[in-house]
């Protein structure tokens, strides 16, 4: 049911603020049954507009009257204490704010009727994007010309009454009837000036935390059908009930697609792996917690755990007590013991509530003690006078009250929703604003003098629309905010209007910070927009610098299946038990990456204020700020790069970088050391060797020189030792670096001459980034990026230890609706984690490596593989079709000794129809593209061996193995391994002489059927070289996403049985061998069929079907750069060079124009970077062809010298932070340089010792970023100079 989008317009003119706030809280969503119930429980009376007859709809509502859904105006202008109302002309409401911060500008525009999603009608809303900005009237005229006159049967223009309406816009919003929508879309797509047509999607979020005030204990989720992640299922609107023997509706029920869901606050209970049952239990416990306050009178807690702040105090090495510091007032210190000016003693007491108990305790913390800003050393910047002054931050959230006691400078409040309220009725927006810019002593923000602009883009019941965000983003650009915090996210990185607008926002220089997501501990769960290169994506850690269990992990999945993901998150920040502001004052403690995001946004505001105002325009941009954050970050122990990105932010380090910043380019990761474990997992787990498929690493280029850039010439790899000369590195890169960033992909191979080599290989990757000159400059900006590289080369493993993973045949959401594999999981209906051994199958990857197997990944068709090198091909959870040439190539490989292992998943056409549903977010029917796996396509692959999968959806548990087996694994008492199937396809056909394992299983595809003996593991030998084809019913036991029980040991047993000839593994043994052919007796078996294109056009989501071979259906498909070089076409030059068929030039680096120069610079860089990792970036402008450079002045004003000049050359880490060292271009030999280096090193150690011991020195603060032995928020061992850059 669509959400009713009308809020009662309460006449609150002339009321004191407290009463006015109460009436804002009492607004109701008229005619919404669930909300009417909620309202009656919250306020003790019936919803004022809920009982009016439907005939009243459409009557215009005037200010002071109750409006109805679909009424003439959705809401009215916000009013102030004296009754003055804002108007569409100026959009201002004259709420009297605190005198200390002046009068904020406020906008809560009245809305015209908005049919479609907002009023319960069947009309759809379409976003029409244009190629240019123009007044709305001009766009409307162009649509009239393209579509003809407006009419209810065709289309209607929707006015958007908000602050952006007075400015030119780049999109229009219209409503269409269901019958006319297709025609309108078709005509618009061919209309001049139209960029695209999209549904106005709804974004919803499930409350996973207790809201504040009268909402507490009552609001579950009023977004319809369970909301964001869905608590309740919304089955397909089928005209009739399912047949008695059809699919089990309870199994195949779905929850509405979440769209761009709010990154929700997460509780402590989300730590670690959570089973489907555990998640359901936690969800029910949370619902019960919310209901307590409404039904039983038990006092609701705020979710605060006093142990959290006290743990933080201990971690910080601080004691209670202490005086006022920096920007905090005496009044703020007093509030520490009274819970804030607005909340009084009761709210202060509530902040110390114990979970699950009835008693409350008051937290007596000194100002700043143990708070997140102090832990991140913000107090050091405060002492220097930096407080965020002059920085404008936009908080895109649920709003804030006009005179919140914690916020000093509320510059402007705007409302973009259908609610008639600028204030926060949920608590989320207030909390986020407090973390960024609060001034309360108990829960201080990072930048108390920041200018806060709140954008209410979510209603109090967590509903938003794409169009609201587009208008709000446009307005943020117009009012020139510097920073935006976006504590939301979702899996849909193909929501084109939203993604494109984010790109536009950052291209205008706005630094956008976003939460990476709360879908951890699962890998491949990055949320958008935090996964975009131009956005600062923030993950979460706890008080001891361990990753928070709920924090989403990388890698990015945009590039899959044919590429490799990028490093994300960018940085980490505290996300557990973080204290922030309550709606009306006082503090509360919450957790989630939506908390970590404002932590970093506040830090960005504070860091921006450390740059002199006159230099900010030239220095600050999304790339330079990200460079400062990632280069100053502290790497965390025992976390890999896809968990922590570049580490925890460190404000003194980042401040030092910004204050000496000169525009430049850099790369992430700064150093590519594939031997660095565990940080460079998964690469560090497997050495490089000759004959392997290329190892692909996707680096990110940051360009602080300008919003647009490009590479001046191709990147180069410069070997620095004998091992490095055995490597061949090919590249792919962004044609244009926009905005502020791009990618650089490395394809790393070992030459044939390296087959006998065992040792380290060192080199460097170099490229030149060029951007247009800045205002006042007449030469393009150039920056040489240099990334040191290290890997270990080892001997090639034997064939029976080499496995290849088929990545090419994996599909995911988006763009298609790929349903979940584990049908027990109701809260996550999409298969969106990438299906890669480095994302949701990372447990299997680690298990195989532990067992001594080497796993390579193929992102190209199977015809691009040299199968003679491998013992087995793993095809896991494949949804893609197969080229006929692939099927033939695999069959030949199996005949030649390679084994094929297929791990399938469920597939049943009737069940897929059961999972079809109408999505209110997109106003369209969602039909699964296939089942958990594409069984018809897999049967094509298995056909040459006489194996076939059926369409029974089996689930249950069994055991497999040998009694008394003593290996490592999960075993029954008898020593046999337990195997759990969470909805897989049955093995329906096996030829005589094959093997079949059967077990008693239930069939979810046939409701009410009795359990029966179903085959779940079948195999057959093929040819005389030892090759086998194996099919297993289910891949869920290998998938970490929703695993209930792993079957890694089963895979190891199968490999030992097939590749090493070990017959004592308890699988494919004589007891399971068939003397005659098997066909399932449980149903009338016919090979499962594909749906016809009239029901679902699979070509729209299939690369195979949409890219037929150039030389006919049976021809060879194209290979991608990750294929085997011996299979690549002659037109692919890198492989021709690798194979020695094309002569290779001596690598020429960009640093000094020659190989010798590169080596000398590398040696100097390694010496200079002894205190921290990172590649060096030389700012001297160079000519890639000639290798010579001229002296000049870079954009930051620093003198740069060419390769033939004398004097110092500025060198910074590839991570980018400037070094105090210089590269000497004098003609000194190795001996003098060594002596000079020793003297400098001795002086450095002596200086550090003197400063450490305080020998004869004052103990006063040592300047910007200084860190004393006492008073620091966190004492970290100084073994890593990068961790405490301020002390070096």
From TrEMBL:
Residues 341-358 have a biased composition (Gly residues). Residues 668-795 form the MBTPS1 third domain. Residues 75-87 have a biased composition (Low complexity). The chain crosses the membrane at residues 1226-1250. Belongs to the peptidase S8 family. Residues 127-200 form the Membrane-bound transcription factor site-1 protease-like N-terminal domain. It comes from Edaphochlamys debaryana. GO terms for biological process: proteolysis. One of its GO terms (cellular component) is Golgi apparatus. Residues 52-121, 316-358, 1259-1288 are annotated as: Disordered. Residues 797-1073 form the MBTPS1 fourth domain. GO terms for molecular function: serine-type endopeptidase activity. This is Peptidase S8/S53 domain-containing protein. It comes from the Eukaryota. Residues 388-639 form the Peptidase S8/S53 domain. The active site is at 397 (charge relay system), 428 (charge relay system), 594 (charge relay system). Keywords: Hydrolase, Membrane, Protease, Serine protease, Transmembrane, Transmembrane helix.
